[in-house]
Amino acid sequence: MSATLNPITLSEEERLQHPLVQFFLDGLREVTTGSQKYHIWMASLTLLMCLGAYAYGVQLRAGLTVTGMHDHVSWGFYISNFTFLVGMAAAAVILVMPTYVLQDHDFKKAVLVGEALAVAALIMALSFVVADMGGPDRLWHVIPMIGVFNWPASMLTWDILVLNGYLVLNLLIPFYLLYSRYMGREPNKRIYVPAVLLSILWAVSVHLVTAFLYAGLPARPFWNSALLGPRFLATAFTAGPAMMILVLRQLRQHTDIDVAQATIDKLATVTTVGAQICLIMLASELFVEFYRDTHHGLGARYLFFGLVGHTRLVPWIWTSIAMSVTATAILSVHPLRHTDRWLKFACTLLFVGILIEKGLGTIIPGFIPEPWGRIDEYAPTWVELCVTLGIWAMGTFVFTILTKAAIPVELGVVKYRRR
Amino acid sequence: MSEFNPNPSGLHQILSRQVDRRTAVATAAGALVAGLGLLQTACNPLAAAESKEKSQLNWEAFFQGNYRLMTDKEKEDTVHRLERLHELNTGNKVRIGSTAAKEGVLYGYAFNISKCRGYMDCVKACIGENNQDRKSDMRYIRIHEHNKGQMSFEAADDSFYHEVPAAGHFYIGTQCFHCQNPPCTQVCPTQATWLEPDGLVVVDYNWCIGCRYCIAACPYDARRFNWGDPQVPEEEVNPNQHYLGNRLRRKGVVEKCTFCIQRTRDGKNPACVEACPTGSRTFGNLLDPDSDLRWILKNKKVFRLKEDLGTEPKFWYYMD
Question: Which residues in chain A touch residue B309, judged by CB atoms under 8 angstroms apart?
């Protein structure tokens, strides 16, 4: 075995026959073949990615001046999306933990889907950070050992470490499990269980560290709250499983994967509890901000009620709250939650509600009013919207490829044959 | 082999392609035209030498390290490279200093609220001295017009446009307070901004990646970002520059007040202090017991803004 793994002793023909090569070639074949519907889907995503690339080109030439950001709202749509997507990535743990730690096999079928979702979300999150950089050509300045890495002082360096580490874990674990399945071997528990346990702790840390990025800044009282991190986790562990339910329903329809109703039911329970906790945290936050109206609460006042005629975010946040409350109410009623139609409706509401809350209601009010009380509002421009759309299309593309290649292997349809 | 490798490499494909005479001639002619163009550039020795030097210098600038970690020799080479690049780009000479902090110096600033009348000469002088972007009207200094009877910045106006001093109002200027415990330098992922030994908070514009975390961390709105390509008319460029100060910036980097490091490290006052017609502004060495600044701290009732954040600003306010 060890001799065949050594590439130097292999001829080119033997190397191409190596199961690892075959594994990737089979995967490549899977993602490049499919129904007409599949090709139209991929072509549409590619088109959106091209649109995003064009908009990013405009931004690269002119600078970030083509965005709606300015010195007083210096992070906007990109960083908001980044924040939301880190949460989506962290939510993969919801599927991983019951399967591998609690040995609950209802979740097992969905676990690879969850991990693919995490990989796609992480790639999107990292792309949003790069899209937000003033000097993407200087990205190497922040690579440990090559540049100057301000660790442990800067929370951003922590975030770089945990996000990339989480990405590697979420690529390696499914790879090992799938490759074992491909080779018809039972995966070695002593290898993957410790890795899975590590990834669970890691998932919590990615979103907590991302929250600390903001929460550690006394300059921005709106973020400077100990609840920010837990609230990030709560919304992530609500929007994540809600998204997973929607995706699994789609996969059940369009692929051969067999998702048991028990899996969906358990995910729905997780979503419900998450949604209820989110509302408790929202109430707690609203109470502290508004019981006594202090200057530290101005950001929240701007978000929920507007400040001296500036009300741009007010309709958005109330829409988001209405969606979350309605969805939580629906999910909390057992017969409704067990009705497929209502479940789908509630999950969509929750996902969109939390996307709005994270996308507009979390980052931007931290900057309004600016430190001396001036109110300069923010709205994303077409460049920001197109780049955002492009990155989301890219993430969806990555997710489609990963699941398309993984499902036949998981189902045992595609396995290694010595040619 | 071929059944496993149906697609040979692109280069292999081109080299092994069967071509007829017509295609061969057309390809050769195309290559000839391209080659001649290259030759022509190469035969204009002056332009070619300059453009070669420029790309060489730009290449070196791209791989340049963090200024703070450079040896004195590397710092000197770096500023000479930037001076030469400016000359190659514009035909004009600038002097970029790399004067280091002196021992026994810790800079500080005092602002007399009773005297300031909102004339904005400091703002104007600052823009000119520090080569700030004219297109976006970038300003390091903000003058806040307060209503008499309250000290609320939320109620103050920093974009007034009328005759000053306006009745019933008083004026307070804010800028970078050069905190001794700065939150902005702590959060920078690449250490592109730091506190110098003489108390100045500076930015290495060649090392900044433009993440703007420092802007989010600053409780005083002291930092500015170059959202687009900064524009300064060539005839208005202040040629007396410092690497950590007013040298020309590029788009996508953060900048800020440096207490005019290019002036103050040579023993002069910052431009705002020099320009102020009312004498509201005092700059000095906190470690020099005979400085005017120390006299003010000793004899006036001074205060600092947002002291509760523990940032230790080296910028005091007082009233007569």
Answer: 218-219
Percent of chain A residues past pLDDT 70, beyond the cut: 97
Does residue B212 belong to the interface with chain A, where contact is any CB pair within 8 Å?
yes
- The owner of tokens 């064009």 is A54
In sequence order, the 6+-apart residues with CB closer than 8 A to the CB of B86 are: B92, B93, B94, B248
In chain B, where do the E strands start and end? 95-97, 107-112, 142-147, 169-174, 193-195, 201-203, 223-225, 240-242, 254-256, 281-285, 315-318
Contact indicator for A347, A300 with CB cutoff of 8 Å: no
pLDDT above 90 (res A153) = yes
Alpha helices in B197-237 (DSSP H): 213-217
Which tokens go with A248? 């699994």
pTM for this prediction:
0.90
Q: Residues with Cβ < 8 Å from A309, sequence gap 6 or more?
A: none
Q: Are B218 and B183 in contact (CB under 8 A)?
A: yes
* Structural tokens at position A48: 């959106």
Structure-token pair, residue B83: 């001076």
Residues 53-112 of B with CB under 8 A from A: 62, 65-66, 69
Cβ within 8 Å, pair B189-A150: yes
Handedness of CA A119, A124, A130, A132 (dihedral sign): negative
Q: B240-242 and B95-97: which strand pairing? A: parallel
Cβ within 8 Å, pair A63-B251: yes
Complex-level ipTM beyond the 0.90 threshold = yes
Is A214's Cβ below 8 Å from some Cβ in B?
yes
Put simply, the answer to whether A214 touches B216 (Cβ < 8 Å) is: yes
The residue in chain A having the minimum alpha-carbon distance to the alpha carbon of residue B255 is: A71
Q: Using the predicted structure, report yes or no on whether residue A1 has a pLDDT greater than 50.
A: no
Helix (H, G, I), strand (E, B) or coil at A51: helix
AA letter at B259? F
**Which among B275, B152, B252, B264 is positioned nearest to B200, based on CA atoms?**
B264
